[in-house]
Design a protein that fits this description.
The complex is a heterodimer of chains A (about 150) and B (about 270).
Chain A lengths: L1 H17 L12 H12 L4 H16 L4 H19 L5 H26 L6 H22 L8
Helix pairs in contact in A: 1-3, 2-3, 2-4, 2-6, 3-4, 4-5, 5-6
Chain B lengths: L1 H22 L8 H73 L10 E9 L7 E4 L12 E4 L2 E9 L4 E5 L6 E6 L5 E5 L5 E7 L9 E4 L10 E9 L6 E8 L8 E5 L6
Antiparallel strand pairs in B: 1-2, 1-12, 2-5, 3-4, 3-12, 4-5, 6-7, 6-9, 7-8, 8-11, 9-10, 10-11
Classes of the chains: A mainly alpha (about 150), B alpha+beta (about 270).
């Protein structure tokens, strides 16, 4: 239950503090995605429902029902499948996989939004958001997912 | 079996999310009642989020504005420093000129009168730009006949000076007559305003004048610098056997002038 509370707080923080700084708002650093990434290294229990819940809260707060749910569900599912088979707790592996899943998450969001709405994609905002997501993701892994090098 | 449930949950939730996204379910009138109830439940959270969102956005805009102001301020400070240097230089030149005037016993050599900065408050509604109203009047030392400038170019002269405003007839106005000189030859002429082109009066057929020549203001008392009035636009033969018709394009555009300078005869109060 505590995880759902954390997801709610992260989603709230993301939609109220980060969205106004990044335009369009759905491109702001995705804290719920970072949580899912860190969580997929640790337990992976009910990750699909957590992703769905996080996406739903973000969608309600962003008034974009379906967007975050789809992107987070897909990312969480692929992360689950990937880390279940290959889990190397080495920094380069974590960073590489984080970069891959972050790009995937952003690509899904941009693809879905561009099918429905027209918006201006600012390369600077996008790069900054990606950079912050990668940095926070790495930080989250080092702090909460046990940054010790080991191989499964 | 557990594994199968996991995949099934993922596929069904993903399809549901995509369906909600593409079907515009959130905007459907069928779900208005459900939306209303659910939004009422989360309304405090949404309101709080909106309040924080607006606060962050507003402060971000203020920050950006302040950064821009800082840059603008720095640019203006540099310009001010340059102006101060120029002012010192100018006062030196004035002193030298005054001394020279005294040495050469030039009559009527005086320094500039009051310089009055003013804002244009009204433009000619006919579109002919024959006049503008400025926010400086008799109270500021403006009087009839004063020269009005914008960016070093002559806008016109003060036609009527009221208490707090003045009417300025522009170089596009047929009522305006100015003493001017041709920069290339230094010869003096009379400029008469007109829309869209003004005219140089009594230009002798033998006078050397060509298209593009600069027309400068000429102060009969010789105390004001030669500000730009316009450029020769067209030269025609004319009806008179002695004179040519020379049309002048005024340099200043009254519509683009927000701030003007009035060279007042008397010192500004």
């Amino acid at each position: 239950m505590i995880h759902y509370a954390v997801i709610f707080v992260l989603a709230f923080f993301q939609s109220s503090f980060l969205s106004p700084l990044f335009a369009p708002g759905f491109l702001s650093p995705d804290l719920v995605f970072i949580f899912l990434f860190t969580y997929s290294f640790k337990e992976r229990k009910d990750i699909i429902f957590k992703a769905f819940f996080g996406g739903f809260v973000l969608d309600v707060l962003h008034d974009s029902l379906g967007l975050f749910m789809s992107a987070n569900l897909l990312s969480a599912y692929l992360m689950f499948m990937f880390y279940e088979r290959i889990l190397v707790k080495r920094l380069f592996f974590v960073l590489g996989s984080l970069a891959f899943f972050t790009l995937l998450n952003y690509s899904v969001k941009i693809a879905l939004m561009s099918r429905k709405f027209s918006f201006e994609l600012n390369p600077f905002v996008l790069s900054l958001s990606l950079f912050i997501t990668l940095t926070l993701g790495l930080l989250g892994y080092l702090l909460f997912a046990g940054g010790r090098d080991e191989q499964t | 079996m557990k594994r199968y449930g996991f995949h099934l949950a993922f596929v069904s939730l993903l399809l549901l999310s995509l369906f909600i996204f593409f079907s515009d379910l959130s905007g459907s009138p069928l779900l208005d009642r459900i939306k209303e109830v659910s939004y009422r439940a989360v309304l405090p959270v949404i309101n709080l989020k909106e309040a924080i969102f607006n606060y962050v956005e507003e402060n971000m805009s203020k920050y950006v504005l302040l950064v821009n102001l800082k840059e603008e301020n720095s640019r203006l400070l540099k310009e001010l420093e340059m102006c101060k240097v120029n002012e010192v230089e100018l006062s030196t030149y004035r002193r030298v000129l005054r001394r020279l005037g005294q040495e050469l016993k030039l009559d009527g050599f005086k320094s500039l009168g009051g310089v009055v900065f003013s804002r244009v408050v009204y433009y000619d509604p006919t579109g002919l730009d024959a006049f503008v109203i400025i926010s400086a009047g008799r109270q500021s030392g403006v009087s009839r006949g004063d020269i009005v400038l914008s960016r070093g170019e002559v806008i016109g002269t003060v036609k009527e000076a009221y208490t707090a405003t003045s009417k300025v007839i522009t170089t596009l106005n047929g009522e305006l007559n100015l003493s001017v000189l041709l920069e290339s030859s230094g010869k003096a002429y009379i400029y008469r305003g007109g829309y869209p082109l003004g005219e140089l009066l009594y230009v002798n057929k033998k006078d050397s004048i060509s298209v593009g020549d600069k027309i400068l203001y000429r102060d009969p008392e010789g105390r004001l610098p030669n500000f730009i009035v316009g450029y020769v636009d067209r030269i025609e033969k004319g009806e008179s056997p002695f004179f040519r018709k020379v049309f002048v394009k005024p340099a200043a555009d009254p519509r683009r002038s927000e701030m003007v300078i009035v060279l007042a005869e008397r010192k500004a109060r």
